[in-house]
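Worked example 3. Consider a protein that binds flavin-adenine dinucleotide.
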Amino acid sequence: MSVIIVGAGLAGLTLAFALSYLTQGKKDIKLVESIKPDKFLHPNHNGRTIALAYGLCRKIDALNLWSLLDPIATAITRIHVSELGSGGFFSLDASTYGIPFLGQVFELNQAKKIFFNHLEKNKNITLYCPNTVILVTQYTDYILIKLNNGEKIKGDLLVAADGTSSNIARLCGLQWKKRDYQQIALVTQISTDLAHQGQAFERFIRNGSLALLPTSRGLSSLILCLEQEQMKTMYNWNDKEFLTYLQTIFGWRLGKITKVEKRYFYPIESCTRVSTIAQRTVLVSNAAQTLHPIAGQGLNLGMRDILTLTDILISAWKTGKKAGDFSTLKQYQKQRIIDVQTTIDFTDLLVRIFSHPCSTLFIGRTLGLMMINDITYLHNIFIKRSIQ
Ligand SMILES: Cc1cc2nc3c(=O)[nH]c(=O)nc-3n(C[C@H](O)[C@H](O)[C@H](O)COP(=O)(O)OP(=O)(O)OC[C@H]3O[C@@H](n4cnc5c(N)ncnc54)[C@H](O)[C@@H]3O)c2cc1C
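Given these inputs, the predicted complex is written out as structure tokens:
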């Protein structure tokens, strides 16, 4: 029987390819996606770039997938972290850690398109698209799903990789806990007088944060997270007004900011699930947990879900077990719990500390940033998250 994956985002596609590669195409994989590949410029992902940590890029390479992303990726060799209005900063250099880069940046829609086209080379993966699941029936030994076109698919395991508003989680009654940061993310690309030279910047500003990631064509990708009210006033700004504001909050580390591309606005969603497993069902990546983008950890964490699930399924198959046995799913959940919780806590801590206008905290976090090179704990967290 097959493994059914719902959601052909980067997480779902990576899982499908990983299982296929490690079983030499011997496993039957069904992939259900609601948006047609030819329209695969996912409206929710316009303008969004992703930074994937060094360690993950290597693991994806071991699955024979990095060569697909490499042509569209830009290496991060240095990360500079600072706060507006304070002298506090620290930086991480790939060379200090003896690695060629700290992470790689690519455009999400582009990456998904490339992965989608790669499906053609995997004959054991059957794509159902554009389709959605309208019914899930969970049995002890198998799972049955019904698609919107009436077709039924039987499998050993159902993997929900269908993103934040996971329909599968809803159909299986898996509850979520939502956190509303009341912030909006603005994403776009900017041109600067000075070349980025592989540098990424994380800058904490009053009531929000700003990240700049180096991308191809010498541009930098901007992710600006601010309170809803502040962002609302920005909706109507023209490019000149926006550039002036951006220069003020970012400073001159890349010289003059000369041009801004189309700006996209996204409400910041954050949610975690009470449980990520049910009978013959497992939730992964954004379907399992959606993080504030402040530390760029969402897909990194999601990819670690995928890698762990892949390892566990391959081991289970080797010992003759079925893919969706509850003991296997329990093992998966147990193995993921610490990494997931630490990453959620770390992200949440950053949002709370750096979104708070209170001046005592401001002094505290400034001192924190100034001392961070000596504070092994925080420094290690940043480094671990960068190269993991
Ligand atoms: C502004 C911003 C910047 C970010 N930057 C980073 C970063 O630098 N690094 C990082 O690690 N993370 C980052 N993230 C988070 C990252 O984008 C997400 O974690 C990641 O895209 C999640 O991938 P996914 O495959 O789990 O979900 P999605 O990409 O949401 O994919 C879900 C798929 O399921 C499909 N689907 C949905 N519903 C159904 C249904 N009912 N039936 C069938 N199919 C369905 C969708 O069409 C989609 O293709 C950022 C997020 C934001 C908002």
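Take a moment to read the result before moving on. The chain has eleven helices and 22 strands. The longest strand covers residues 183-192.
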